[in-house]
User: Fold this.
Amino acid sequence: MVLQKVVDCLYEDIEKYTWVGIYLVRGETLVLAAWRGTQATEHTTIPLGKGVCGAAACTGTTELVNDVSKDKRYLSCFLSTRSEIVVPIKKTRIVRGEIDIDSDSPNAFDAGDVLFLEKVADMLSGHI
Ligand code: SME
Assistant:
């Protein structure tokens, strides 16, 4: 399945991407559709509006959290996570899913990651 292939590529090719997942919007909930990392997350479903993931789904804009310990919205999955990026996947401007990436390094994500992952999200929008 294409979602799993994309998750695998991102995880294998970019070392600072410690955990990579794709959530899809199903009604009022984000549902984990594919993931890769050393541990499974307990957050396989997230209500829209909850956590950093739910925020990105509601606003339709990329969320970049440089230090997860300082973001009150953050839903903790892994003790080792220090920073996170969430990039919405949109079809005709409506959010249909998102790419969620955790890193064990603080400040792991920059404008280059935002540009790159927004392009990946654009490419994925035809496949979900
Ligand atoms: N940290 C996310 C939850 C998903 S896990 O990172 C896999 C959040 O705050 O929404």
Summary: The helical segments are 2-13, 51-59, 111-124. The pocket of methionine sulfoxide is lined by residues 21, 41, 43, 46, 51-53, 74-75, 77, 84, 100, 102 (CB under 6 Å).
